[in-house]
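haha ok so turns out i had the wrong file open the whole time. this is the CORRECT one, sorry everyone. sequence first:
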Amino acid sequence: MNFEQLLYVEVLAQHDSMQKAAEVLHISKSGLSLAINQFERELGVRLFDKSSAGTQLTLEGGQLLSSISDILSFKNNLENTAAIVANPKRYQRISIHYMNTMLKSFINTFIDNYASKFKNAQFDISCHEFESIVRCVHNQEIDAGFIAINNIQDAAIKGLVFTPVCDSKLVLLCAPDNFLNTLGRPITLENLKKQQFSIFNDKFHDEIFEKLQFQCGPLSLILRIDDAWAMNKAIIKLNTVCFGRILQGDLSSNPNFSNLKTIDIGHIIDDNFKLGWLTNPNYMISEKTQELLQDITTEIKKDAQ
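then structure:
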C-alpha cells in the first residue's frame, strides 16, 4: 500500500470513470486499472464495480473512502507542517476569524503589503459568529478573532484577552426611501412595530432584538444572514431594517453597504460597542502574525476617524 494508490482511489471515486480519472492523474487507463486491482487485492476488499454506466464505488468501498481521504489529508498536513518547521521564516500560516461584514480592512492590508511583508504567508480568514470565534480562540484553533462586544467583562470571553481597537455605535440600517428617514425626530417603539427586520447572525443583535420585543411586543423578523451583499439586497428590495455598527459600512467588502441610511437608537437601547482583537494568552502568536494584526489595526483606526 502506498499514497499513490490512495490518491488513485479518491480521484476515481470522484469521477466515476476510469478514463476521466486517468486523464486527471496523467496516467494510462490500463495503468490506473492495474493499480486499483493491486490495491484491492492487498486490502482483500473490492472497492469498485465496473459497468457500462461507469466505475462506481461498492458499499465496502464507500465505507473505506473517508478513511482513505483522512490519510491523504494527514499526509498533506504533515508535509506542510514539516516545511514550516524546516524553514519557519519562509512559511507562515495566519488564521483570523471576524464578525459580520468587517472584511475590507483585513484583506486590503494583506494584499497591499503582500510583496513587502507577507510574501511567504498563507492568510486564512473567514466570517463567523461570536460564539464560534470565542470557541476557536479558546481552543487555539486560530491566531486571533476580530469581534464586536458591548461589555468587555462578558463572561463569554473570560480567560481570553480582548484588545480594543475602536468604539462604535449600534444603529438601525435602512433603505434611503424608508419612512424612518422622513421623521425628523428620534424614532419610537411604535415606529419599530411597523418595520420588518433582517438580522445578522450575531449574539448581541439577537439579544437586542429580544429586548426590543420585551418593550414593544412581537416584531417581524423575516431574514437571518451573515453576508453583506445579501443583507444590502434585503434592505433595499424588501425594505427591511437591520442592526449594524456604524463602522460596518466602512469595513464591509460590499461598496453599497455604506450607502444605507443610519437611524440612531441610543435613546432606546444601549448602543455602545467596542471592536477589537480576541486572543488567547496561552497561545504564542508569531512575529509575522503580530505584524499583520498591527497593520490591520492601523487601517481600521483610519476608517474609524
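The first strand starts at residue 48 and ends at 51.
again sry for the mixup
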